[in-house]
Amino acid sequence: MNDLLIIGGSAAACAGAIYAARRQLDLQMVSEDVGGEVATSGEIENWLGVKHTTGTELAAAFEAHVKSYQIPWDLGYKVSKIEKQVKGFKTTATFGDKEKVYQSRSVILATGAHPRELGAAGEKEFRGKGVTYCTVCDGPLFGGRVVTTIGGGNSALESAFMMAGLATKVYLINKNAELKGEQVLINKIKAAPNVEIIANAQTQEFFGERFLTGFKYKDLASGELKTLAIQGAFVHIGMVPNSQMAPMEVKKNAVGEIEVNAAGETNLPGFLAAGDVTNTPYKQIAVAAGQGVTAALSAVSYLNAN
Asked: Are the C-beta atoms of 224 and 200 separated by less than 8 Å?
């Protein structure tokens, strides 16, 4: 039985693993991939001490740092269930037809979150070919082009405002009659000369050949199907936490985020969580890394006390 099982492969998980290894815990890592959403990011210029990198490069750096501590890491395994037992936790993971079971005294869940998808035609086909879910990451790639941001909350408003300074034209597509973000952001968007707000619009299809060239939406007021010529689409309709495998006893909020305290502890002793899978605000790489460290140190305290 391991002292600690860390589930995840991005900033929170890797930072936590390094700190746990330095405290000489008997630990194991398991994750589907390395980097998570970080690896899908484009240019990164907000990682402390590194003026410029990319998501792929940063994910590779995470992996190399973890492996320098010779931490056992099962890559490619998807965790399907975590169960609380009398002593510790039983975690089940699969890789194709193979199943693996882990026994550990404590667990850190750092599986992050994934962008909520629209479910529109062509969305999956053009992801990374014009359709993106991170304006901060990929917005600069669409400078001087015509783009659309889809959503009506703060993240969508921030996306549209950022692109107003980069693109020649920005369409802000909102399925509701009114925008739902903060008024200060709404005012900025309405004052931007190259932003056009299209309300009561439901996304129907993304299309193009090799890359995205157009977008169709349904006017919910008239029922008419309309088309826009665009080169980029930024989807900001929320994030979905990857928390479905957590023990049934663990408390989550209304959107499925695992509720943690300042120490990364959940309501279930020995089960900790860090990063975007939790209810902590500001889903950023640097924040997640700090939470991973906090959870690892909390795991040490828990193990010492038990």
From this structure: no
